[in-house]
Amino acid sequence: xxxxxxxxxxxxxxxxxxxxxxxxxxxxxxxxxxxxxxxxxxxxxxxxxxxxxxxxxxxxxxxxxxxxxxxxxxxxxxxxxxxxxxxxxxxxxxxxxxxxxxxxxxxxxxxxxxxxxxxxxxxxxxxxxxxxxxxxxxxxxxxxxxxxxxxxxxxxxxxxxxxxxxxxxxxxxxxxxxxxxxxxxxxxx
Length: 189
What we know:
By secondary structure, the chain is α+β, with helices and mostly antiparallel strands. It is 34% helix and 33% strand. It contains six helices and nine strands, in the order αββββββαααβββαα. Strands 3-4-5-6-7-8-9 form a seven-stranded antiparallel beta sheet. Mean pLDDT is 88; it is low at 1-23.
């Protein structure tokens, strides 16, 4: 009986090992996002992907949200490692990112905090460049280091402060996000 049992276990192990590996990416609107991101000193796991539409009609961008492994999603704005990637489906001018960033931050953060963060916000907004379809911006926050803005994998700058990261990420996952449906999608809710 033991021989049959060991033979069955061995056979099942071979079957499992010979199966193709699971796709290591999530996809939305034909845009792929990795299931994990290896940030400095920590690993981040994909929580969800979403598609942002303007007026419910026009596809604007696809995005993905990553959070420190093991962190609860309801704690996403806390001082934890996190990342958002946004791949554009339409062109945007770099100069347009700043006003939109400030407008959305102001919906989620009080005026006193905005004024306290003014220098960081201005520096952050100065880093943006024009984008076209297929370009991808990523914001990666690492506690104690800051928030890195990267375009197509090329770092543009790092903005210090957990309070800045909270204000910035609130644009997508705050109480009054840019789009509630997009928030629910990228947070995997």
